[in-house]
């Protein structure tokens, strides 16, 4: 592309500078591409992207960077089409753009953005220096509980937002409405993506890459947060994405029009021509198995989202005309579904699930907080009831005013313990028995009262 790229009408040239040390402070810079040739000096950066106003069609973007005094070859930038919030969501999109590209420690950039009409007006090159944190070289710690036929597939080890260095103040960048996470009703499906980035990154670079993607999605694209719910690197490590609680159905911005009732897993790299490593595929399967099993969804089923019938495990290209998640990864989706099914033991058999079946899911509503461990047992929060289980108590649920009061107490609290009956009517109201007390609803004052003690 060398000769062709030199003839593109909109070019930015950044002079080479002495690289900053790895502890360089984070920085974010946008440089206008508003002339046939623009020259600018810049401090070192680790990620580059190109953005332009909404609605501009047919953009072709190219970039090359300078590292260690040498210019790389020109590289086409992947257009970030059909990522982002749902059209019905209040979360906005301020600009269209490319996928961000990790370049390591670059000191110069040349970039172009053109379409059939020529140079794209108001195009900008985004240069992000995520800096380096002492925690970048740390590995996720903790233990993973063993899976069994009576427990959902366990949550895999995960690098938390705090561990990868998310600046939570950034969520307020696009307004106060972005600070609080948004939740969807349940989890019905998983969408698999690739970030269309480099495949030769190192282990210690990944947290910085995630921080840079976070900054690009918020500052350059106008989203509330990082678009993906989870990310997986080529070494098989899982990273928590969008804020709001990994166990909850956080509304992401990964598959426009299909974010509701789904979650997005992005593998870090470009897998159009390169096959994803086995460790990456295995960890992706484990994340999906954990989320689907907790919400009682089969990876071999189909569901309807936004009027389209899709597999519960789908690639981004199943929803729109996009190359994501890359041909080589997309070709592995069949294996991925079968692997998820194997990890989930092919069926649901937990006491909470069997109890829910007896009550009827139409009465319970959809799982909101999928089956998870509590301090004293297990729980699933459905649309209308919360169901709790331990070996000592068996499965029982709270609903209505009892559920509201129990949640305020701290559901599963050591003081009251788990429910050992469901609520039942008595003269003057209703009551529900717990391991160490009662919740009593009085019809006269229409309040739920707390009474400690085994008898009442």
The DSSP helix count reads 9
Would you identify the regions where 5 or more consecutive residues have pLDDT less than 50?
A: 1-23, 143-149
Intertermini distance: 82 Å
Radius of gyration: 25 Å
CATH topology (fold) name of the largest domain: Lysozyme-like
Q: In total, how many beta strands?
A: 27
Largest sheet: 7 strands, mixed
- Average pLDDT, rounded to a whole number, is 89
Secondary structure layout:
Layout: H1 2-6, E1 11-15, E2 27-33, E3 37-41, E4 45-53, E5 60-67, E6 70-71, E7 75-76, E8 95-97, E9 101-106, E10 108-115, E11 118-119, E12 123-129, H2 161-164, E13 189-194, H3 206-220, E14 230-232, E15 238-240, E16 262-267, H4 278-294, E17 302-305, E18 308-311, E19 313-315, H5 327-330, H6 333-343, H7 351-359, H8 361-364, E20 367-373, E21 378-382, E22 385-389, E23 396-399, H9 400-409, E24 424-426, E25 429-434, E26 437-442, E27 447-452
Parallel strand pairs: 1-3, 13-16, 13-19, 14-16
Antiparallel strand pairs: 1-10, 2-12, 4-8, 4-9, 4-12, 5-6, 5-7, 5-10, 10-11, 14-15, 17-18, 20-21, 21-22, 22-23, 24-25, 25-26, 26-27
Helix pairs in contact: 4-6
């Amino acid at each position: 592309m060398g000769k062709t790229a030199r003839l593109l009408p909109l070019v930015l040239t950044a002079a080479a500078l002495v690289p900053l040390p790895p502890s360089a402070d984070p920085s974010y810079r946008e440089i206008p591409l508003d002339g046939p040739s623009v020259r600018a000096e810049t401090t070192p950066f680790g990620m580059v992207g190109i953005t332009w106003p909404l609605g501009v069609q047919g953009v072709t973007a190219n970039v090359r960077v300078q590292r260690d005094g040498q210019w790389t070859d020109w590289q086409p930038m992947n257009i970030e089409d059909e990522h982002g919030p749902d059209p019905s969501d209040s979360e906005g999109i301020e600009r269209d753009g490319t996928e961000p590209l990790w370049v390591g420690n670059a000191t110069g950039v040349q970039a172009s953005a053109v379409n059939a009409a020529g140079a794209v007006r108001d195009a900008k090159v985004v240069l992000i220096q995520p800096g380096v944190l002492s925690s970048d070289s740390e590995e996720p710690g903790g233990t993973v509980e063993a899976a069994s036929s009576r427990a959902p597939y366990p949550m895999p080890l995960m690098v938390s937002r705090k561990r990868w260095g998310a600046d939570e103040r950034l969520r307020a960048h696009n307004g106060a409405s972005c600070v609080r996470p948004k939740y969807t009703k349940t989890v019905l499906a998983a969408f698999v993506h690739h970030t269309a980035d480099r495949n030769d990154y190192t282990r210690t670079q990944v947290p910085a890459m995630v921080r840079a993607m976070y900054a690009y999605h918020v500052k350059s694209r106008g989203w509330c947060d990082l678009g993906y719910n989870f990310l997986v690197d080529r070494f098989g490590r899982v990273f928590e994405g969008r804020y709001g609680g990994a166990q909850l159905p956080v509304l992401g911005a990964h598959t426009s029009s299909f974010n509701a009732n789904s979650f997005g897993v992005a593998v870090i790299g470009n897998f159009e021509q390169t096959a994803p490593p086995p460790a990456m595929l295995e960890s992706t399967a484990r994340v999906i198995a954990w989320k689907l099993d907790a919400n009682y969804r089969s990876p071999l089923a189909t569901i309807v989202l936004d009027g389209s019938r899709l597999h519960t495990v789908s690639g981004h290209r199943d929803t729109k005309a996009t190359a994501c998640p890359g041909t080589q990864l997309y070709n592995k989706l069949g294996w991925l579904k079968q692997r998820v099914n194997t990890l989930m033991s092919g069926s649901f058999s937990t006491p909470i699930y069997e109890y829910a079946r007896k009550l009827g899911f139409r009465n319970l509503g959809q799982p909101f907080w999928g089956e998870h461990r509590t301090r004293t047992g297990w729980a699933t929060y459905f649309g209308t009831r919360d169901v709790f289980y331990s070996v000592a108590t068996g499965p029982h649920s709270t609903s209505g005013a009892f559920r509201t009061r129990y949640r305020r107490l701290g559901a599963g609290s050591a003081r009251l313990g788990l429910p050992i009956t469901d609520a039942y009517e008595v003269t003057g109201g209703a009551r529900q028995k717990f391991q160490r007390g009662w919740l009593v609803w009085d019809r006269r004052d229409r309040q739920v009262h707390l009474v400690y003690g085994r008898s009442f």
